[in-house]
Amino acid sequence: MNSMKRKKSTLLVCLGLVMALVLTTLVPITSIEVQAVRKVTSSYKYKKAPAAKTGTTIVTAKPYKGSNNNKKAMTAVSWVKFTVPKTGTYQFTFSDYVVKDKKDDIMFGVINMYTGISRWADSGYPQDYLKVKTNGGKSYSLYMCSPSAYVKPAKVGKYDSLSSRTATVKLKKGQIVFISFNNSNTITCKMKIKKK
Fold first, then answer.
1. Does the global pTM surpass 0.90?
2. Which H, E and C letters describe 46-73, residue by residue?
């Protein structure tokens, strides 16, 4: 009888260990699913800009078509927004700035960050540029290029086009940051936002 009890007890312990092992292997998978990459397509109107959140967002940004731009310029801006969840210092990292479906093509563009609402009723832009500290110094404009176009400068300056740019800025809870993409072809760009 004691032998039977010992066997049952051993079996229960083994089952418990197997369950613990299964749960341990499933936890990382669950974490990955929670931190899934967000994908958005920027809008030509900043008031209709799709939302980015902390974490990684893949942005698809299209240039203006003639019907959307009275001046028919070759380049124009489109928008994504970020609403600050908690007061603090945030780091924005932009990378993988490439022509959509043609990642080896040479591409240059500019990313700007704005806050506020326009003081001019007929303006198509938010009010102010953010003062950001980038990996090339303080600059209102983050000059970007595709990896295929990147040439490493002797010293990184704020006007150099880089394949990766990092901007750090202090923000208040509820503040909205509008991020503009200025490009002549449809591009995709990885944007990672984290609270420091």
1. no
2. HHHCCEECCEEEEEEECCCCHHHCCCCC
Q: Could you tell me the two tokens for 62?
A: 């299209």
Secondary structure tally for the chain: helices H, strands E: 1, 13
The dihedral over CA atoms of 136, 141, 146, 149, expressed in degrees to the nearest 10, equals: -70
Indicate which CATH number applies to the domain containing 168.
2.60.120.380
pLDDT digits (tens, 9 = 90+) for 97-151: 999 999 899 999 999 999 876 666 556 778 888 888 988 888 888 999 999 999 9
Residues 177 and 126 in one domain: yes
46/178 Cα distance (integer angstroms): 7
Q: How far, CA to CA in Å, does 183 sit from each of 39, 64, 81, 105?
A: 18, 9, 17, 13
How is residue 147 annotated by DSSP? G
Q: Are 58 and 188 in contact (CB under 8 A)?
A: yes
